[in-house]
Amino acid sequence: MKKNICLLAASCLALTFASSAGANEPIGWGIDYMALVNKVNPLPDNWEDNLHTVHVTNSLGDDVEVEVKAYDAYTKLREDLLVNDGIEIELDSARRSIAEQQEIMDSFTEKYGADYARKTVATPGYSEHHTGLALDLYFRLDGEDIYYNEDMVQYPEIWEKIHEKLADYGFILRYLEGKEHITGYGYEPWHIRYIDDVEAAREIMGQSGLTLEVYLGAVSDPELVVDYGTSSLYTEEELKEAAVQVKCQFAAFAGCELHSLRYAGDECSTEDNIRWMNQLEEGADFTQVAEFLSDFHSPMEASGAWDPDKEYEDWQWWLARSEDGGWQLLTWGY
User: Fold this and answer.
1) Residues in Cβ contact with 156 at an 8 Å cutoff, skipping those fewer than 6 apart
2) Domains present along the chain, CATH in parentheses
3) CB 54 within 8 A of CB 5
4) Residues 6+ apart with CB under 8 A from 309
5) 107-116, 190-199, 251-260, 319-328 — which is least confidently predicted?
6) E-only strand ranges, 108-245
């Protein structure tokens, strides 16, 4: 049974811990604070049996559940930022059940589209938020809550100050820009992860582009060459948005190493291909299409669809979008 400690407000900076564990058992016993949970690594078995959490209420009146040591570290980070930088952070979310994760997936798909949901919301059962160690932040500015994603990204200078202090309290920034093929998610300046090791956190945060996956040796990170080519149909920024979709999906190719990704050219945007995309998505009204090609290497001991230790070349990725929508990755393969 998971142990919960209820608090009244997220602004509390001191905690009295209690749990149904034995009196001499340390808070947080039994969980691996370095546990890797991502698109190919599910929540470890029996995690909740050893998890101790607190419930807090944020400035929006929402209940947030957090692992006890992660919350204690968060309160110290919050106080530091408030006193020394004038930045008031709040908890948007932390631990979520599998059912709650499914609700979020459905909500993001409806509000932002399937493409955005795929790169920002984890598959239920494979979310870091199930651990209680992953925290989504928002902040208050001039007395107002800034919590919508599209609003929060307008303040990179605030996030930079927050990120500078994460490691001092055992946190890391989890989803890095340009590493979507490793983490499986687009850049999220608000998503931080508690690892309960300040020195390890400083090492990770001190190396540009170092992900938790690579630090733990779960995957390697060879140089990735991305070529957006020249297009008269799309800007480079639009092609970058499409490439993020591809890279987020590639992260589910367990053990594979992505070496190159390139835009196939405007010649892929034909009426026949647009018609094909609309056939793949029921009820869609796509008007634009893009194709990317990739080269990647399979694991030494591959299983399932992959041949072992093989270089796959010109692997196709097909995306489409409507006039006012984002890119959707619809199919991939040879």
Assistant:
1) 189
2) 3-215 (3.30.1380.10), 225-333 (no CATH)
3) yes
4) 297, 298, 299, 300, 302
5) 107-116
6) 134-141, 144-146, 171-173, 191-194, 225-227
| Average pLDDT over the chain, rounded to an integer | 90
User: What pLDDT does 98 receive?
Assistant: 78
Q: How far is 247 from 306, CA to CA, in rounded Å?
A: 18
Place of tokens 């890095």: 176
Q: Note the pLDDT tens digit of each residue in 99-130.
A: 888 998 899 999 888 867 866 787 888 999 99
**In the numeric block, which tokens belong to residue 311?**
């270089």
pLDDT score of 119: 67
Give residue-wise pLDDT tens across range 212-234.
999 999 999 999 999 999 999 99
Closest C-alpha to 95, from 122, 59, 61, 60: 122
Please give the Cα distance from 328 to 334 (Å, whole number).
Answer: 18
Q: Rounded mean pLDDT of 46-67?
A: 95
3-state helix, strand, coil in the chain (%, to 5): 35, 25, 45
Q: Give me the residues paired with residue 263 across strands.
A: 292
Mean pLDDT computed over 322-333: 92
Q: Which two tokens stand for residue 112?
A: 């932002």
Tokens encoding 256: 């594979």
Strands 225-227 and 257-263 turn out to be parallel
Burial per residue of 229-260, b for 16 or more beta-carbon CB atoms within 10 angstroms, e otherwise:
eeeeebeeebbebbbbbbbbbbbebbbbbbbe
DSSP state of 171: E
**Beta-strand pair 134-141/257-263:** unpaired
Residue 15 has pLDDT above 50, yes or no: no
Q: Which of 67, 30, 33, 71 is nearest to 49 (CA)?
A: 30
Nearest-angstrom CA–CA distance, 327 and 197: 38
How many Å separate Cα 298 from the centre of its chain?
Answer: 24
